[in-house]
Amino acid sequence: MKVVIATFLSTALLLAIPGPPGGGSDSTGNSGSRKPVSTPAPEAIALPEAPSILRVTVDRSAIVEHALAIRRLSVANGEIAEAVAVSSTEVLINGKTPGETSLILWDSKGLRTRFEIQVSASDSKIEAVRRELAEELAKQDVSLTLQDGNVFLRGTVQDITAADRAVAIASTLGKVVNLLRVLVPAGEPQILLKVRFANIDRAATSQLGLNLFSTGALRGLGSVTTGQFGQPPTFDISQQPAQTTISNLLNIFFYRPDLNFGAMIQALEAKSLLQILAEPNLLTISGRPASFLAGGEFPFPTLQGGGAGVGQVTIQFKEFGIRLNFLPTVTARGTINLVVTPEVSSLDYANGLTISGATIPGLATRRVQTEVELENGQSFVIAGLLDNQITETLNKIPGLANIPLLGKLFQSRSLAKNNSELLVMVTPELVGPIPAGSRPPDVKMDLPFLKGTAPAAPQNPSPQVTGPLPALPQRDSLPIEEIKKLSEPSNSNGGQNNPAPNPGIPPGITLPPMQPTPSGGGTLPNSTGSGH
After folding, report:
1. Predicted confidence (pLDDT) at residue 168 exceeds the cutoff of 90
2. Before 257, cis peptide (omega within 30)?
3. Cα gap 184→475, rounded to integer Å
């Protein structure tokens, strides 16, 4: 009985052991429908949710290892850091410039890993830059700090040149944020330029000629002339007796009615002298242009294009007089460099133009443009001219003029001599303002003004009446941006001949179209100057 029970229990235990689903062979090799048991796969790596931070020094490298094979990588800013795959699971990071950027890796399972790369300058390089700043900007308070790849430059320097040099040195560490202040510079030297124009034109002319005519002497009409001076008389033989018309009697006229013989003599001597002395003075500070004009403006018409061959006439104005443009600069040698353009011009009606009865004068101009370098108070003759001219004209009648003694009656002679002398001299001087309370210079008036008028212009009350005035603000240093604005040149014409528009005179006046003439030219309308 005991043997039967033991056998039954063993059979029940074997039946209770579960086999592989679907049957098959077991681990002992018995045949069946069960499949072999597979080896379980390794567990996946848990990635951090926040990006990892990698710190690299400029011109240094770091290795990033990944558990899985790397398929792709990306760097946000290749100027800051460089990523190079050296194997399937390793990436080499090279620091290039200070700053921050991002690195993203994709592995073989498509998972992404993000790194924040922080590239900083090396401590040895920072110390080297600080030593350069201390050496180049000695006795000047300049410091730098690095934060997030930016270089913050602080302190106070002497001038803009020192500030630019500090920025250039600090830029070797990265992007510079310039927070420097600059000491307020001393006042620029004020330069007074004295220009002296001296011009003399001398002219002497001599004219001698003789015209002979006959109104019936020797039973004939006739005249003898060289044609140089005046017009010979004209005869009208259609009338009896013949009529004689004399249009130019020259300056000596002689006539004998009993002899029917006359003579016109040109015998003149003339001398002319022109003297111009101008001494314009102009004041400015070093490095700033200045312009001076004492004269006026004269109008002249300008023809503008129009439709159907009819143009518009515009009246423009041209300046003349004494003009001075110059740009002084105090050099490091203690001298004054001058770019100077003095000019003296006057109206020249002899070389003018007449249009529709209106005379437009020309301009007689004496202009010099040069660059010189002088010390304070020195003078230079920047232009000089000596011009001597002789013009002689001799007209004679062939044959008759060769008769001894009497031949002079058949000759005419004109002689003109001209002499011009020009001198332009410049003298720069460093000057200061007139002290407060001192009497300024004045111009002496030859005649007194109207009695009963105010001897001086109205003035503001003194501080004793208005109270103490607020003090002008003074600062030892300014931000670099304000100093650069103060150093920029003002909006002037730079010494060019482009004057500001005159509010009292319109720059251009458009007139009605020109009236065409049969010859193809044009004439101004009668109302050209009616508005002036």
Report:
1. yes
2. no
3. 7
Identify the H or E element spanning 372.
strand 370-374
Q: Between the CA of residue 245 and those of 13, 171, 258, what are the distances in Å?
A: 171, 97, 18
Distance in angstroms (rounded) separating the CA atoms of residues 182 and 475: 11
| Both structure tokens of 356 | 């529709």
Residue 256, judged by CB atoms within 10 A of its CB (0-12, 13-18, 19+), counts as exposed
In angstroms, the CA 257 to CA 252 distance is 17
3-state secondary structure at position 136: helix
Q: Which of 352, 210, 362, 367 is nearest to 278 (CA)?
A: 367
Secondary structure (3-state) at 258: coil
Q: Which two tokens stand for residue 279?
A: 């001494």
- Amino acid residing at 529: G
- For residue 272, pLDDT over 90 is answered with no
User: Is 176 within 8 Å of 155 (Cβ atoms)?
Assistant: no
pTM (2 decimals)? 0.54
The yes-or-no verdict on residue 32 having pLDDT over 60 is no
Q: Which tens digit of pLDDT belongs to each residue from 179-215? A: 999 998 888 889 999 988 888 888 898 887 877 777 7
> Could you read off the pLDDT of 402-432 as tens digits, one per residue?
888 777 778 888 889 988 888 888 899 999 8
CA–CA gap between residue 285 and residue 226 (Å, rounded)? 65
Instruction: Measure the CA–CA gap between 182 and 155, rounded to whole angstroms.
Output: 9
> Looking at 233-335, which runs of residues are DSSP E strands?
234-236, 243-245, 252-256, 261-278, 281-285, 290-304, 312-330
Tell me, what's the pLDDT at 153? 93
- Residue 260 backbone zone (phi > 0: left; psi -120 to 50: alpha; other: beta): left
Strand blocks (E) in 44-174: 52-57, 61-65, 70-75, 81-85, 90-95, 99-107, 112-120, 141-147, 150-157
Half-sphere exposure of 464 (CA within 13 A, CB side): 0
Q: How many CB atoms are closer than 10 A to CB 291? A: 20
Note the maximum CA span of the chain.
Answer: 207
Q: Are 414 and 393 in contact (CB under 8 A)?
A: yes
Q: Which of 209, 263, 250, 206 is nearest to 408 (CA)?
A: 209
Distance CA 401, CA 395 (A): 10
pLDDT digits (tens, 9 = 90+) for 460-515: 888 888 888 888 888 888 888 888 887 776 554 444 444 443 333 333 333 344 34
**CA-to-CA distance for 401 and 210, rounded, in angstroms?**
12
